[in-house]
Design brief:
It is a single chain. With about 180 residues, the protein is mainly beta. It has one helix and eleven strands, in the order αβββββββββββ. It has one helix spanning about 1-20; strands at about 45, 70, 75-80, 85-90, 95, 100, 125-130, 130-135, 140-145, 150-160, 175-180. A hairpin with a 2-residue loop joins strand 7 and strand 8 (about 130-135). The protein is elongated.
């Protein structure tokens, strides 16, 4: 019996010694970590990569104004950024069978009839829930700012060039470019 009691007492003594408080010293350290978030970056997604203006006539030089045609569908621009973004848009020259249609300069914009520009000049525009305006080769801001993770519809529009321009009976194409910048 004594032989069994000695190992049991030794085991209890070892257990009591290891269950006590940790040894203390005059200093200590703790390692801390932090995950650094990426800074906000401009990011947008577009609901479509193509719009259609249908079949349109060249502008009539005798008309008081050139009709404004709206492309379909509207382009829903969604922010995929963690910060609010300003949206900018521009339009390219249009390519048509036999040549190109250029854009008017900002100083020329605004006549009622595109025939005032001469042949082979079309007028691109934009529209949003709060307004619209002209587009040309440089980026134009489209208000309002898009809040993070939200979106808005943008409609691209054109006024056709004057009768006698290149491309009669063919398909003309232009590029509308959208760019996001942190607000």
């Amino acid at each position: 019996m004594r032989l069994l009691l000695v190992p049991a007492l030794l085991g209890a003594a070892v257990l009591a010694a290891t269950a006590g408080p940790a040894l203390s010293s005059d200093n200590g350290s703790v390692v801390g970590t932090v995950q650094v978030a990426q800074p906000p970056a401009p990011c947008i997604t577009l609901s479509t990569d193509a719009i259609d203006f249908g079949t349109l006539q060249f502008s009539d030089p005798a008309a008081a104004s050139t009709p404004l045609a709206t492309g379909s569908p509207a382009v829903h621009v969604t922010s995929c950024s963690t910060a609010d973004e300003n949206l900018f848009a521009s339009a390219s020259a249009a390519t048509a069978s036999g040549g190109t249609w250029s854009l008017p300069s900002p100083a020329q914009l605004g006549p009622g009839n595109t025939c005032a520009y001469g042949p082979n000049v079309y007028e691109p525009q934009w529209g949003s829930p709060v307004g619209g305006g002209f587009l040309y080769g440089t980026a134009t801001q489209i208000p309002p700012a898009i809040p993070a993770a939200q979106g808005m519809d943008v409609r691209f529009k054109i006024k056709m060039p004057c009768r006698g321009s290149v491309g009669a009976g063919a398909t003309a194409s232009m590029t509308f470019t959208t760019t996001a910048v942190l607000a």
